[in-house]
Amino acid sequence: MYYDNKPDEVFSLLDSDKGGLSSASACERLSIYGRNRLSEKPARNPFLIFLDQFKSALVIILLIAAVISAAVGEIVDSAVIFAIVVLNSLLSLYLTLKAEKSIRSLKGMLSHKANVLRNNMSEIIDAELLVPGDIVLLESGSTVPADIYIFNSVNLHVDQSSLTGESVAVGKQSGVQNAETPVTERTNMVFMGTIITMGRATGIVTATGMQTEFGRIAGLAKSIDTGTTRLQLKLDILGRKLGIASVLIAFAIFVLGLFQDRELLSMFLVGVSLAVAVIPEGLPAVVTITLALGVRNMINRNCLIRNLSATETLGEISVICTDKTGTLTKNEMTVRSIYCGARFYTVTGEGYQPEGKILSEEAPADDAILNRLILTGMLCNNTDVFLQDGKYTAAGTPTEGALVTLGMKYGISSNERTRNRSFAKEIEFTSSRKRMTSIYLENGSYCLYCKGAPEQILACSALYASSDGLKELTPAVKVELEDVYYRMAGEGLRIIALGYRMIEDPNLSDNELEDALIFLGFTGISDPPRPEVREAVEKCRDAGIEVIMITGDSPVTARSIGREIGISTDNAVCGVEIDRMNDDELGEILKECRVFARVTPEHKFRIVKQLQMQGHVTAMTGDGVNDSPALKQSDVGIAMGIKGTDVAKDASDMILTDDNFASIVDGVEEGRRQYENIRRFTNFIISANFGEIITILLAMLMHMPVILFAVQILWINLATDSALALALGTDRSAPDSMKSPPRPHNTDILNRETVGFLLFMGLWIGGLTAGIFYFMLKAGLPEAEARSAAFIGLIIFEMIHMFNFREADVSVFRKSYLDNKSLNIAWLATFAAQLVIIYWQPAQDVFYTRPLSMNDWFFISLAGLSIILMAEIYRVLRNVLIK
Q1: Section 334-354 average pLDDT
Q2: Residue 361: phi, psi to the nearest 5?
Q3: Engineered SS bond to 315: which of 368, 418, 671, 711, CB 3.0-4.6 Å?
Q4: What is the pLDDT of residues 629-656, one digit of tens each?
Q5: What is the 3-state secondary structure (H, E, C) of 90-158?
Q6: pLDDT for 648
Q7: 854-882 vs 752-778: helix axis angle to the nearest 10?
Q8: Three-state DSSP state, 71
């Protein structure tokens, strides 16, 4: 259906026309056909997600402890252990459901857009809002948003591999197909989910959603990759090791107790307590919440994470390879200068507003050559500039928008440029050709208009237009024109050269058509650097991150922008030079060069690969179809959210919602903050657990009664340590986080220096807690009261110890204690919870506690101060030993 009809018949069948649907008609059809999206697999059953939580080895150990506790008559202990396991699983269920909801939300943010004609005007809408009968404008790099019948195309090629398995892009064009033509051979149709690799086209939507060919074969709905990160894998391995350690330690202590002739039941309770003490029950949940909060923080910094592992890798980046236009610069193209007919012209005005003048001191701005140059810029162009919501907007590329605006300032409107002309052919701009050609039929003759990189247009030109008529473009004249080009580019302008020629046959080869052009002149387009970029580049330098600018612009323009933003321009290498280098030579150049000009996507790929071979962790920005290999090769592929193609976005790990280089640097800083906070609270939890183990071991070796029950340790680990760890995960970046080099790629959460501190402080905390229990028993206090004091003492010690993990290298006398509101609230809430379990009768029965006296609190507080003092002593001794 449709593909075997003529365009007029298709318009009639779909009750539409070339001006597009009206807004009212589109809304009505949306209610009939539904949103343009594929059905997704149903959400996972929450009950099954809940059951998945019980597959963890750590949870199984706790459940075994609960069952055995019940078997020996410790019903309260068993019930509390089981209840805490269930609550922890419910928390994990909540976090999983919340994460899936966040993913659905992010999918919405990543949804594709479509350029449609509605009410005879071009507008960008969510692809989900497309309906049959919509007129869609397609261009290179876009993903086809629905099944579309093509009625107008220029050099259109489509990658249909996702639908048909064809590995080579297929040419498409308007026309009528036979009714028996199979899907793979319908050249007048493009299908949802396929990719425009070359050319442009206009077509009418014939099917949306599940009615498309993709929908008919239950196509693939793309989603955000939420695979396990390296950090999570490291923590999983750590958790398994601790689980094994908990069993071994518990068994060893159990055997030791038997040799001490202790009661079997007593030793079992000690073994259960030790097993619980070793296991960091709350760590997985805390890490999950912290990563989720990190994704939200990234969005606030204009970084949309598509792959959770990118958050971790951002903190390891040592080189950022960035495009210039729109990333380092504002992407606000305005023609500032013109050179033609041996004259310079100055252009006033800003942006796409047509207000402005074309001025010259040497002659009035109505020169015939100037007229031809401006007309060439408007005709060799696929962009429209129009008034929308009181502001002039460009529907197309910024560079072409600037050329159209130049024509409007000259008095030629965007719509009038093709009057008395009919479009005949286009030779598309590519990164390798660096030029574009449009051919029009004018008064019975064909005229070819060409624009592109100065060196390309000059190389294709045989004549040049002067005030004395057409003259031969001799090598000497070329040198003079190149000097003009370098002078204009040296002012930071992006230079576009223009030429034209009359032809007889538009069906000649591309090279034959673009040969022997008549050179017209140059336009100098300004795209000033973003004001915040220089500071961002400097911040990268302080953080040990190299910034490499990779641009398709000329080396002169690239150097000029590089100087403005603080990137070294001592060496600037062009793409043609890279072509002549082998990999080893390119590797040597990369050790010094920070500016690459006139590059192609293939050059980007080689640059990234060589940097990685040198041991760098790389981030690469990209926006075009052919950038996807480099984006995938890099450690963090960064696509542009505004100007990026769908293909580039799908290949990326992160999308910049504002296309701003400074946002990349913000993302790196946020990545460093997240990793450092996860490392901090992981070390805190492990240190606290080690303190609990030492407490139990010392009591055992000193032949004291059971000092802590399993339910008490579970309360410490889950309700106390986890709450504080979660708040610690919200801590701000360290003041010097962007003043130090990136961490090595294989950095462990626990290193030798950290382990030393954890062991030292764990021994001290365990010794203090066991000491409180011992002296209270010696003083004749009841065992229950002494145990309560040890229990609360251990909690208070760990609450104080938590501050040792904030600004670890800063003296205790210079730490910031009150600048994290979340942490302060969590600390006070945790303290209040301890008062409840100490003084509220029902909680006393569950946690085996007794009220504490003021003397008890004073003694605990005094001992707690030593936690800070000992951490300070350790820090001083460590610094002395290092020196």
Answers
A1: 92
A2: -80, -20
A3: 671
A4: 888 889 999 988 877 767 677 778 888 8
A5: HHHHHHHHHHHHHHHHHHHHCCCEEEEEECCEEEEEEHHHCCCCCEEEEECCCECCCEEEEEEEEEEEE
A6: 76
A7: 150
A8: helix
Q: Are 826 and 876 in contact (CB under 8 A)?
A: no
Cα gap 531→760, rounded to integer Å: 49
- Are 279 and 57 contacting, i.e. CB atoms less than 8 angstroms apart? no
SS3 763: helix
Domain-by-domain residue ranges, the chain?
Answer: 1-219, 235-300+667-882, 304-329+530-659, 335-524
State the Cα–Cα distance between residues 700 and 711, nearest whole angstrom: 18
Residues 6+ apart with CB under 8 A from 606: 578, 583, 586
323, 367, 666, 721: which is the annotated catalytic residue? 323
761-794: b or e for each residue (b if 16 or more CB lie within 10 Å)?
bbebbbebbbbbbbebbeeebeeebbbbbbbbbb
Superfamily of domain 335-524, CATH level 4? Calcium-transporting ATPase, cytoplasmic domain N (3.40.1110.10)
Q: Which two tokens stand for residue 299?
A: 């969005």
CA torsion angle 645 648 650 651 (round to 10):
170
Class of domain 235-300+667-882: mainly alpha
For the chain, give percent helix, strand, coil, nearest 5.
50, 20, 30
Nearest to 190 by CA among 168, 207, 210: 207
Contact by Cβ (8 Å): 587, 613 = yes
DSSP output for 793-835: HHHHHHHHHGGGGSSTTS-TTT--SSS-HHHHHHHHHHHHHHH
Give the span between the Cα atoms of 336 and 314, in whole angstroms.
38
- Amino acid (1-letter code) at residue 639: A
Per the DSSP assignment, residues forming a β-bridge with 347 are 358
H/E element holding 437?
Answer: strand 435-442
Active site includes 15? no
Q: In this predicted model, what pLDDT tens digit does every residue of 146-157 receive, in sequence order?
A: 999 999 988 888
Of 574, 615, 575, give the one whose Cα is nearest residue 591. Answer: 615
- 304-329+530-659 sits in which CATH class? alpha beta
Classify each residue of 333-365 as buried b or exposed e, where b means 16 or more C-beta atoms within 10 Å of its C-beta.
Answer: bbbbbbbbbebbbebebebbebebebebeeeeb
Instruction: Note the CATH architecture for domain 1-219.
Output: Distorted Sandwich (2.70)
Give the mean pLDDT of the chain.
84
Kind plus residue range of the DSSP H or E element containing 606: helix 601-613
* Dihedral (Cα; 254, 260, 262, 268), 10-degree rounding: 0
Query: Cα dihedral angle (352, 354, 360, 363), rounded to 10 degrees?
Result: 140
Write out pLDDT tens, residues 690-710: 898 899 889 888 888 889 887
